[in-house]
Specification:
Layout (H helix, E strand, L loop, with lengths): L17 H7 L9 H19 L5 H7 L4 H29 L2 H19 L4 H29 L2 H15 L2 H15 L2 H22 L14 H13 L1 H31 L4 H29 L2 H24 L5 H28 L5 H19 L11 H22 L4
InterPro entries: Efflux_drug-R_Bcr/CmlA (IPR004812), MFS (IPR011701), MFS_dom (IPR020846), MFS_trans_sf (IPR036259)
Membrane topology: Multi-pass membrane protein
Subcellular location: Cell membrane
Length: about 425
């Protein structure tokens, strides 16, 4: 059973089961217009689009900027670090000022940062631009989740996140395919020009299509002290911390794949950027299908504990399979690819469930809770993304070991901290 819910001032109330919260709170079947659902899904998709669109171009930009593979992967790490910083900024800020203004400011800054990346003349400048891009783009991710939390609770929220996931889940499918096709007509800089256009389009869509969901009476008027107390109250709650760590380490497993798959599959298994985009797309379809299965079917028939334990066990199995396929059986890509597909499918169960349960516990501090979830996940992702190239050489075995380690840490966190009673 979840622990106490945490208010905007860090105080805790008596614990409620998600089913009890859902029963006590009116939950309209269609709380948002269709256009708003599409916009919110696109905002959540901005994160994977930012990380995935340019992945097929990593080898090309490395050569063009006269750099190395580990240095090129720092462009991904830099973006993730920026998202960590930005979510800690925009999440609590949206609890104070409302959702619209911080969201629009972040999207404008994201568009400018994307232009800086497109015209970067050296790897350090590109990394700096990616950090700024991550800081600004995080506003879309953290505030979109908070907007949903403003309107829904419990199981209804998880189901709506699955609906948003249907849209945002297209991002990791479309992004590498689009990036590979862009490379046919332009160079790596063109992928960042595409992000400039996307940022401008989302800014316009939010300006005209997303209404304020946090009325003034529900905002907290305190300064830094109130924000710190709210975050501290969340972190002191054992069960919230358990879901936070579960989501964090699971996301680490995901980003071990996202950060390492490009160099591992292209450099180790010698596949082309177009073939890599196909592999990435197939794996992303598995993620999308599992997310929809979870939101529309599994959450109605299985307990949250069963779903999370099963998903985490499958993720660990996927990591172990990659290690075995590269050290014991030597199956090549034929063994590694299905294991990575299995990993992506498990994330469609783990991440919506863990994030939804955590947000359910913070009805009056949704921005801060969303910021902590995003901070933990992207910080872990920033650490693990370059690990597959330790020693200067990409390794599928190391990639599998990192996935396995992160999955086991997530499972241990859930079992130890999210126990009933």
């Amino acid at each position: 059973m979840p622990g106490p819910t945490v208010g905007s001032d860090g105080d805790q109330t008596l614990p409620l089961r998600p089913q009890e919260v859902a029963a006590e709170t009116p939950q309209p079947a269609a709380p948002f217009a269709t256009a708003t659902v599409i916009t919110l899904g696109s905002l959540v998709a901005l994160g994977p689009l930012t990380t995935d669109l340019y992945l097929p171009a990593l080898p090309d930009l490395t050569a063009d900027l006269h750099s190395t593979a580990p240095a090129a992967q720092l462009t991904l790490t830099g973006s993730l670090i920026g998202m960590v910083i930005g979510q800690l900024l925009f999440g609590p800020l949206s609890d104070r000022l409302g959702r619209r203004r911080p969201m629009l400011a972040g999207l404008v800054a994201y568009t400018v940062a994307s232009a800086l990346c497109a015209f970067a003349g050296s790897m350090p400048v590109l990394v700096a631009g990616r950090v700024l891009q991550g800081v600004a783009g995080s506003a879309a991710l953290v505030i979109a989740r908070a907007v949903v939390r403003d309107r829904l609770e419990g199981t209804a929220m998880i189901r709506f996140m699955a609906t948003m996931g249907l849209i945002s889940g297209l991002a990791p499918i479309v992004a590498p395919l689009a990036g590979a096709q862009l490379l046919r007509v332009t160079d790596w800089r063109g992928t960042f020009v595409a992000l400039v256009v996307l940022g401008a389009a989302l800014t316009a869509a939010c300006a005209f299509g997303v209404r304020e969901t946090l009325p003034p009476e529900r905002r907290h008027g305190g300064g830094l002290g109130t924000t710190v107390r709210a975050i501290g109250g969340l972190l002191r709650d054992r069960v919230f911390l358990g879901y936070l760590l579960t989501s964090t380490f699971a996301f680490g497993a995901l980003f071990a794949y996202v950060g390492g798959s490009s160099v591992v599959l292209q450099d180790v298994y010698r596949i082309s950027s177009q073939t890599y985009s196909l592999v990435f797309a197939v794996n992303s379809v598995a993620l999308l299908a599992a997310t929809q299965l979870n939101g529309r079917f599994l959450v109605q028939r299985c307990s949250e504990r069963t779903l999370l334990v099963s998903g985490l066990a499958v993720a660990a199995l996927a990591g172990a399979s990659v290690v075995l396929c590269t050290t014991v059986w030597d199956t090549g890509l034929a063994g590694v690819w299905p294991a990575l597909t299995l990993l992506m499918a498990s994330m469609g169960v783990i991440l919506p469930s863990a994030n939804g349960q955590a947000l359910t516990m913070a009805p009056h501090a949704a921005g801060s809770a969303s910021a902590l979830l995003g901070t933990g996940t992207f910080l872990c992702g920033a650490v693990v993304a370059p690990l597959s190239s330790l020693g200067g050489h990409p390794s599928a075995t190391v990639l599998g070991a990192v996935v396995l380690g992160c999955a086991l840490l997530a499972l241990a966190s859930f079992l130890a901290l999210c126990r009933r009673g």
